[in-house]
Amino acid sequence: MKNPAKRWLEFALKDKTMADAGYERGEYDLAAYHLQQLVEKSLKAIIIFHGIVVPLHRFKTHIIGDLLDILEENGIEVPSFVKKATSLTRYAFEVRYPDDYVPVSVEEYEEAYEIALNVYEWAKGIIEGSEGGKGI
Fold first, then answer.
1. What is the pTM of this model?
2. For residue 117, which of 53, 48, 23, 49 has the smallest C-alpha distance?
3. Does some domain include residue 135?
4. Is residue 56 domain-resident?
């Protein structure tokens, strides 16, 4: 059976693929949503990797800051470049539904892309062992 944390990273990478496709079509709003998902799934992969047990309602959140809180509450040092990802939470809500819709500029997307990729690479480094961890 595949390592569950690595499986979460694989799903995160699918969101990067979707973000790239949206960017190429000029759909920065939907692409930004997938960047938020990339970050969310990367952080959840770390939670799983470390064997952190939290109530399901806390794990199922789309709020990046809440996931970072879970990591820090469990003794995981979160670098400042990862904390920047809290700005991506808005894409989980503002671009998905017409009532909440706020457009995303190419500049906003490109900034979000850099942040999201940094978070993914950080998570991947932890899970693949370059930064340690308890494993599962």
1. 0.92
2. 23
3. no
4. yes
